[in-house]
Amino acid sequence: MPNCGFIGLPLCSALLGTARGTVSGMAMASxxxxxxxxVVCLFRPGEKIRLKTFITPTNIATVxxxxxxxxxxxxxxxxxxxxxxxxxxxxxxALMIVGVLLADSDIRALLHxxxxxxxxxxxxxxxxxxxxxxxxxxxxxxxxxxxxxIIACCPAGSLAAVLAKQTGIEATxxxxxxxxxxxxxxxxxxxxxxLTGVMFPM
Length: 202
Fold this sequence. Notes:
Layout: H1 4-16, H2 18-24, H3 27-42, H4 57-71, H5 77-103, H6 109-112, H7 114-137, H8 142-152, H9 159-167, H10 171-199
Helix pairs in contact: 1-2, 1-8, 2-8, 3-4, 5-10, 7-8, 7-10, 9-10
């Protein structure tokens, strides 16, 4: 899963402008529903996706966000400030967890573990290419296509490592994959953005 929040949305805002970048950030709603249902089930072998699977605090918050965006309603100022403060803590805390997990692992493994290169190749090159091909086939505006492509080419998100730690499944390997794809984004993201500019000129 891509790092939509910490890297994707700031990139959208920087490259597309605040208003258009925020619209592209609607992809976060899809990301939240997909991650906190299907992806969570992947970390729990034998668990099946049911209607109950979709009733999670994150999905409820996503629906509330969509209602607020659609209606223009605003939360009371104290509630808004509280939500902003809590939201501002989540990414740093997730990155701290990844850092702690990496501290217990051999950093040299980032360079010598072939599996990590495969993860980075899938996350940073193959998945974005397939996603951009799908966007190219759909009758969408190029601004929207570009915004979604930016999010798709982001490195692996730290939430996967947090979930791996929580469920006790390959937490160190998940953290290494996040770190590896994040370092490699210095090459993969610019390459994918150049291709995006060619495919979806604005």
